[in-house]
Amino acid sequence: MTPRELFETYAAFVWRTLRYQSVAERDLDDVSQEVFVIVFRKLPEFEPHGSLRAWIYGICIRVARDYRNRAHKRHEVLYDDVSEHAGGVSNAEIERLAAQKQLHQMLQRLDEEKRAVLVLHELEGLPMNEVAELVQCPVKTAYSRLAAARKQMLTMLTKAEGSR
């Protein structure tokens, strides 16, 4: 697979993975580029018996963690506030952006293991056997993490709705 084919095949996956790992919208292009620099530099070390997607996923997770740590040390806010006074933006778009922001905040409150399984299965639509391979755990453990993540998300959503 050529570097161009590799990029075209995995760019959307990398972008979504980083977004679900709380990389701010404004930084996605730069952080995605950082992921692919590492992928291309380390590609000769990749062992073909493993899943390329899982290997790239692991790189995304590490790069996103480093990104969050750098932002925390600089006291940066990783999410832009949705302004209700944004010019030229419809109420429906504002509501969609607010819901998206709420989802990302709730995902951040999950531990990394639960978040990974929930995102890969529910949002990426991957079958559980592939999710288990990507997060390197048994399939039954992946199902357990998914159930726990769903329960925690439901609790958070119920509390958020109750506070309105």
**Protein structure class:** mainly alpha
What is the terminal-to-terminal distance?
51 Å
Unreliably modeled segments: 77-85
**What is the N-to-C succession of helices and strands?**
HHHHHHH
Q: Count of DSSP E strands?
A: 0
The fraction of residues assigned to DSSP E strands is under 5%
Number of helices: 7
Radius of gyration from CA coordinates: 17 Å
Q: Main sheet, how many strands, which sense, barrel?
A: none
Short description:
The chain has about 160 residues and is mostly helical. It has helices at about 5-20, 30-40, 50-75, 90-110, 110-125, 130-135, 140-160. It is built from 7 helices and no strands.
General description of the model:
α5 (112-123) packs antiparallel against α6 and α6 (128-135) crosses α7. With 164 residues, the protein is mostly helical. The termini are far apart. The chain contains 7 helices and no strands. The chain is 72% helix and 0% strand.
Which features would summarize this protein structure in a list?
mainly alpha, globular
What layout of secondary structure does this protein have?
Elements: H1 3-20, H2 28-42, H3 52-73, H4 91-109, H5 112-123, H6 128-135, H7 139-162
Helix pairs in contact: 1-2, 1-3, 2-3, 5-6, 5-7, 6-7
